[in-house]
C-alpha cells in the first residue's frame, strides 16, 4: 500500500481512483464496511482504492484541547486498511488554513485535481469542508459537475454493547473508557489495542514474582478504565497471553496511572526499550487495595488464572 503525507506526495501521473474520506479512527466494523465497499468497487472498475484521512484529528485544530482519545495511531490504521485491500493512504495535515477550505474547494483540490476520483464511497452522515458544511447531497451534486459518482453505504448497528446505536468511534471510546472492552471488541471486530515503549517502573512486579512490562503509551491513547484485564502482549510479532493492570498502584499508594502487562508463563523476558502492543480481551476485576502483601499475591495469582481461562476460552 502506498502512503502519502500531503497532496504533494501524490504521484503526478496518478490516474482515476475510488476514494473514501474520514478520520477512520479505530477502523471499526462500520469503517470496514465503507472501506471494504470502496475496495470492492475499485476492483470492479479496475482502478486503485484510496483512503483520505487527517492528522492531527480535526477537532484539535478547530477546538484546541479537544483532541479525542485515539483508538489507533496512524501506523496501525494503515496496517488495518492494507489488510482490507486499500491501495493508497493519503494523510492530509489538518491545519487552521486547511480547515477553512469550503466544501467546493475541498472537492476541487483533493478529489478532482489530485486524486481524479471516479467514485467516492461514504457513510450517510459524512460531512466535510469548512464548518463541516459539506454533505453527501452536496458531494453528489459536485460529482455531476466533475464526473464522479457517489455511493452511500448504510452502516449496520451494533448489538447489546451499544444499545442499538450505529457503529461509531465515539461509542467505542466511551466503552473503552468504561472498561467495557468486550463491547468495544464487538464494534471494532477485534480487541482494543494500546501501544508504546516498555520503560522501567518501580520493579514491584518483579519483586513479587510477577514481572510486568510497563508500557509508556502513545499520546492521546484511549486507555481502558482502571482495572485488571485479560489479553495479549505483542512483542516483535509474537502474541503472548497476558494479565494486564491499568491504573495507579493502590497497594503502594502510587499516583501515576500506568498500563502494565504480565506475560503469562513466560520467564526471563527483557523488553525494556521495545515497542510493544497490548490487546484487551476481557475485564477481570476492578482495582483494589489489599490488607497484606500475601493477600495481594493471592489476588494476582487468581488474576493470572482467570486471564488464562478467558484467553483459552476465546482461542479455543
Automatic annotation (TrEMBL):
Keywords: ATP-binding, FAD, Flavoprotein, FMN, Kinase, Multifunctional enzyme, Nucleotide-binding, Nucleotidyltransferase, Transferase. Its EC number is 2.7.1.26, 2.7.7.2. It catalyses: FMN + ATP + H(+) = FAD + diphosphate; riboflavin + ATP = FMN + ADP + H(+). It comes from the Bacteria. This is Riboflavin biosynthesis protein. GO terms for molecular function: ATP binding; FMN adenylyltransferase activity; riboflavin kinase activity. Residues 187-312 form the Riboflavin kinase domain.
